[in-house]
Amino acid sequence: MSQMTPQEIVHELDKHIIGQDAAKRAVAVALRNRWRRAQVAEPLRHEITPKNILMIGPTGVGKTEIARRLARLADAPFIKVEATKFTEVGYVGRDVDSIIRDLMETAIKDLREQDMARHKMRAEDAAEERILDALLPPARDVAYQLAAETSAKPEDSATRQKFRKMLREGALDEKEIEIEVAAMQATAQIFAPPGMEDLTSQIQGMFQNMGGGRRKTRKLKIAEAMKLITEEEAAQMVNEEDIKQRALASVEQNGIVFLDEIDKITSRNEASGGEVSRQGVQRDLLPLVEGTTVTTKYGMVNTDHILFIASGAFHLAKPSDLIPELQGRFPIRVELTSLAVGDFEAILTATDACLTRQYQALLATEGMEVNFTPDGIRRLAEIAFQVNETTENIGARRLHTVMERLLEEVSFDAGKYSGQHVSVDAAFVDARLKNLAVREDLVRYIL
Ligand SMILES: Nc1ncnc2c1ncn2[C@@H]1O[C@H](COP(=O)(O)OP(=O)(O)OP(=O)(O)O)[C@@H](O)[C@H]1O
């Protein structure tokens, strides 16, 4: 569990998200409260439930990003769900418990990846041996076979050592070998009747188990085989039962569910017709947020301490249009502001993985040096802002489309610019975007 103080958490979030201080503070406190709760003795600890957060703000201003970064900081299982998905016709009756099941899947996947990464070196060694066995079948490698008969761990024969060296140097990468690998598992897609998703996951699990253990000989390039077998070996080294237990604990104690578009399931904009009632969805969500037990294929998950962060623009509806029980479960309200030109400038240049740095790194791989001058950044930010104002305000997402358009030509002809220096200043930006930005008809399609 993260032991970071709220100040430290905000400091970390500042590296990725510009502004939105209130939201950062709220999530930082929520995270710290988990640690605080863990220090409280039972039985009081049991009574302390998370204070869920409602983020209010227009699209593309950092709501999801804050929640996602927080989860990453805390190494917490995270899932983003659109609340409206449960009102769609195709989802009639789809139970909201699937949120927790999906969260569990994410936790399992993350832990498995972490464990496999930990075993990577050992797995690579094992893969190397298997490939060497395929190249030099022990039966034919007389020296190896003799050694194997006399000692527990046979010494390498000279040939085997030579091949190992070549393998490590990549000299054999392109050579093809035939090697036995686990047969691909066909994943059966089963469509369950409403409310029966749990059964589906059990049936799917059964199919997967039935397919387990089957092997198949495949012809592969050594480089590919090495990758595949390393993964296979690493997968065998992880302890699935241990992962399951850790994932259950992690979801229950650290899980974060981000419920987007919560404003769209208020009854204020209730539509009639085939849709599932919005209030109905709120009622379905309530037990999850209040604390219930959900059956997953890995075991029962108690949702008492999962942190819920709901978000919405609340242009038409207000938080008070939510059913009272749900309002009470989201006591912390924070507003996120829309982004101004200055924010766009900072988003373009001041975060750890800001867009300008990304493009610089990408184009540097082609031997091109790109630099962005302050007046160039300013123009870009102004144009993005202006386009948001004249068409649809999609927040910082606009920077992606504008930036892509700006560098489209340079990106395409990168080979031509190799070894050159490209300076993106105001004139460069104007030359490529100015005319576009004033033509409203074009803007809608291009920027
Ligand atoms: N304040 C910000 N600082 C840095 N980057 C931002 C900021 N706001 C948005 N972005 C970037 O814009 C993109 C969209 O942001 P995000 O997903 O957080 O939107 P959102 O507010 O959750 O909107 P929606 O409710 O539509 O999902 C992300 O790539 C994010 O990195």
TrEMBL record:
Name where it's found.
Cytoplasm
Matches recorded under CDD domains: RecA-like_HslU
**Which InterPro entries does the record associate with it?**
AAA+_ATPase, ATP-dep_Clp_protease_ClpX, ATPase_AAA_core, Clp_ATPase_C, HslU, P-loop_NTPase
- Which keywords does this Swiss-Prot/TrEMBL entry list? ATP-binding, Chaperone, Cytoplasm, Hydrolase, Nucleotide-binding, Protease
- Stretches assigned to coiled coil: none
Q: Which GO terms describe its molecular function?
A: ATP binding; ATP hydrolysis activity; peptidase activity; proteasome-activating activity
Q: Out of the domains of life, which is the source?
A: Bacteria
Which cellular component terms (GO) are annotated to the entry? HslUV protease complex
Q: Which GO terms describe its biological process?
A: protein unfolding
Q: Which residues form the AAA+ ATPase domain?
A: 49-336
Where it mainly occurs, coarsely classed, is cytoplasm
**Amino-acid positions noted as binding ATP in the UniProt annotation, renumbered to this chain:** 18, 60-65, 260, 325, 397
Residue intervals of the Clp ATPase C-terminal domain: 339-438
Instruction: Kindly state the subunit structure of this protein.
Output: A double ring-shaped homohexamer of HslV is capped on each side by a ring-shaped HslU homohexamer. The assembly of the HslU/HslV complex is dependent on binding of ATP.
Q: Which family does it belong to?
A: Belongs to the ClpX chaperone family. HslU subfamily.
Its annotated function is as follows: ATPase subunit of a proteasome-like degradation complex; this subunit has chaperone activity. The binding of ATP and its subsequent hydrolysis by HslU are essential for unfolding of protein substrates subsequently hydrolyzed by HslV. HslU recognizes the N-terminal part of its protein substrates and unfolds these before they are guided to HslV for hydrolysis.
Q: What is this protein called?
A: ATP-dependent protease ATPase subunit HslU
- Gene name of the encoded protein: hslU
